[in-house]
Amino acid sequence: MTVLERRSAGSLEATYHAATTGLARLSRREHEVLRLVALGLSDAGIAAQLHLPLARVEGLCARIFATLDLVPSPHLDRRVLAVLTLLQARAAR
């Protein structure tokens, strides 16, 4: 297993942990934003859809990442990990 594969596996484990604990702490608006992220919308697309300023959406995304304990990484995309978190939580129901 390469270093990148080990890091990815560790991040996916962290994502699963976030799915079981962090999603419940998101606000209704944060859940709505995460759902739109899962649909592939950019921050600008989410802002347009929800009629919010772009800076507000960026702040909501940052709070989502923090709540789910998704830290910036040069190897993994936090948006993708956040979507995986959402999908894992739905699959666990």
Could you outline the blueprint of secondary structure elements for this entry?
Layout: H1 3-21, H2 28-38, H3 43-50, H4 54-67, H5 78-92
Report what the structure shows.
- Helix 3 (43-50) packs across helix 4.
- Helices cover 72% and strands 0% of the residues.
- It has 93 residues and is an all-alpha fold.
- The protein is globular, with a radius of gyration of 13 Å.
Summary tags:
93 residues; mainly alpha; 5 helices; 0% strand; disordered N terminus
How would you summarize what this structure contains?
Helices cover 72% and strands 0% of the residues.
Uncertain runs: 1-5
Task: Tell me the strand percentage band.
Answer: under 5%
- Classify the secondary structure makeup into a structural class: mainly alpha
Rounded mean pLDDT is 83
The coarse silhouette is globular
Number of strands: 0
Helix content: over 70%
Largest sheet: none
Order of helices and strands: HHHHH
Q: Alpha-carbon distance between the termini?
A: 31 Å
Gyration radius (Cα, Å) is 13 Å
* Number of helical regions: 5
